[in-house]
Amino acid sequence: MDKERAITIESNSSFYTIAIEITIIALIILTPLDFYPYLIRIFNLAKELVFEILVIIGLIFWALKITTKEEIKIASTPLNLPALAFMSICAIPLLWSNSPFVSLLELPRF
């Protein structure tokens, strides 16, 4: 019974790893479309939507991979503190904003 569960977890993990790799490759291949000068600005919403959907799909597969392994490890690196400080600096002005929803929508532009 334990061997079957271990095999199932490993096969799910490899499936999620392959799915994550495919979404990253799709993002890499589709990135030049955003900078292609002859693509009319009318398609900006469609281009942004494709990137947002691919990132969300990649994050979902990553979360599923973590939950099937049943272990969460956060690596301590020197980059953690600057990243946390930057996110805090970007989030603090939301408290003083006249329209927090609009500010929250504009936050990813930084």
Q: SSE layout and pairings?
A:
Elements: H1 2-35, H2 44-69, H3 80-91, H4 100-106
Can you write the helix and strand succession as a string? Answer: HHHH
How would you describe the shape?
A: flat
Largest sheet: none
**How big is the Rg?**
19 Å
Quickly count the domains: 2
Any key phrases for this structure?
4 helices, mainly alpha, about 110 residues, 2 domains
Characterise this structure:
With 110 residues, this protein is mainly α. Helix 1 runs antiparallel to helix 2. It is built from 4 helices and no strands. The longest helix is centred in the N-terminal third of the chain and has 34 residues, at 2-35. The mean pLDDT is 79. The protein has 2 domains: 1-72; 74-110, no CATH class.
Summarize, please:
72% of the residues lie in helices and 0% in strands.
